[in-house]
């Protein structure tokens, strides 16, 4: 069954009905106002096709809210969704709250200007009444648009707070959150998970010989290789200068050993030179919960020790020894 368009559920009469019939022209007037205060770059970035599709419906929402008997500030879910899209009209540039307020105010301005042309057919009292209800309806429009903008900015800030700016991988903060989540799941559902600690060989030599920009390029290459080798459910993170981690849900240490070998091969391949120069090596320590511990600090410590053992032995991958808690259990059994 087709969805009922609630814009048609509130009949309009008088000047608002006439404005509803020309809402496409009002949308054009809005665009002229926005372009009038925009730079050439802003104008190039305006999604005019989306504006032509969405804005007439938004204007109709305002007119019906103003012409109805209820509170014009109360919007239907459909109207709220359309209003929220105002925050997405500027695709290439993030709008400020001031930009958004001006865009919404322009909707009110074109409606009131057109309504003023109808003043001869209605008294001053009716004109003031309709103008007040239009202002309330536009206020609801602005509230919905700003709410969407604030929520989006909050999500962006959360992403920034959890992301390593150089590689785009998760940072230590997000890694700790994921470890906490996986430990909770392991305790509640007895599902294992693996933790891999990776140390890049020779980053200091690259920095000393070619500069830190070359070292940064190497780290970005490593991040690309890690993403390519892991599963979509795994969480890769950069936790130090040349140290990375991967949290792998539903993996034992034995299964994660296979993942570690794949990571090492992927990093070597990604960083290999076009002239046949061998790619960068990596040392990886592998542990799992509960096999190597049931606390984040224990797992990180055991994985770190395994990684250094792999580095010292010339191996790329080493699985950690059982955690202290499990050693105690084994000795007492």
Brief overview:
The chain has 333 residues and is an alpha+beta fold.
User: In the residues, how many domains can be counted?
Assistant: 2
pLDDT average, as an integer?
A: 85
Specify the helix fraction band: 55-70%
Output the number of helix runs.
13
**Protein structure class:** alpha+beta
CATH superfamily of the largest domain: Reverse transcriptase/Diguanylate cyclase domain
Give the overall silhouette.
Answer: elongated
Q: Judging by the overall fold, what is the CATH architecture of the largest domain?
A: 2-Layer Sandwich
Give the helices and strands as they follow along the chain: HHHHHHHHEHHEEHEHEH
CATH topology of the largest domain: Alpha-Beta Plaits
Rg (CA only): 30 Å
Tell me the distance between the termini: 66 Å
Could you give a short account of the major beta sheet? 5 strands, mixed
| Number of E-type strands | 5
Q: State which percent range the strand residues make up.
A: 5-15%
> Which CATH first-tier class of the largest domain would you pick?
Alpha Beta
């Amino acid at each position: 069954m087709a969805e009922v368009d609630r814009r048609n559920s509130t009949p309009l009469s008088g000047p608002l009905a006439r404005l509803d019939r020309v809402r496409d022209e009002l949308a054009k007037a809005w665009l002229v106002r926005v372009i009038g205060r925009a730079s050439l770059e802003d104008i190039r970035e305006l999604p005019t096709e989306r504006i032509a599709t969405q804005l007439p419906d938004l204007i109709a929402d305002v007119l019906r809210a103003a012409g109805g008997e209820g509170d014009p500030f109360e919007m239907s879910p459909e109207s709220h969704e359309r209003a929220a899209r105002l925050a997405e009209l500027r695709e290439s540039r993030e709008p400020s709250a001031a930009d958004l307020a001006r865009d919404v105010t322009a909707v009110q301005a074109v409606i009131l200007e057109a309504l003023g042309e109808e003043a001869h057919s209605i008294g001053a009292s009716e004109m003031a009444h309709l103008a007040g209800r239009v202002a309330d309806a536009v206020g609801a429009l602005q509230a919905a648009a700003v709410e969407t903008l604030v929520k989006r900015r909050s999500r962006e800030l959360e992403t920034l707070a959890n992301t390593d700016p150089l590689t785009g991988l998760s940072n230590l903060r997000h890694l700790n959150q994921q470890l906490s989540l996986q430990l909770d799941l392991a305790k509640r559902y007895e599902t294992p998970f693996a933790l891999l600690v990776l140390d890049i060989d020779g980053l200091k030599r690259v920095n000393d010989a070619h500069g830190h920009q070359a070292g940064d390029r190497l780290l970005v290459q490593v991040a690309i290789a890690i993403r390519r080798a892991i599963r979509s459910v795994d969480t890769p993170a950069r936790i130090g200068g040349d140290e990375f981690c991967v949290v792998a849900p539903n993996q034992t240490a034995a299964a994660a050993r296979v993942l570690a070998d794949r990571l090492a091969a992927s990093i070597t391949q990604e960083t290999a030179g076009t002239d046949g120069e061998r790619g960068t090596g990596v040392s990886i320590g592998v542990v799992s919960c509960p096999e190597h511990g049931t606390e984040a600090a224990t797992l990180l410590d055991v994985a770190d020790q395994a990684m250094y053992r792999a580095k010292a032995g010339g191996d790329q991958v080493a699985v950690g020894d059982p955690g202290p808690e499990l050693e105690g259990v084994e000795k007492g059994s």
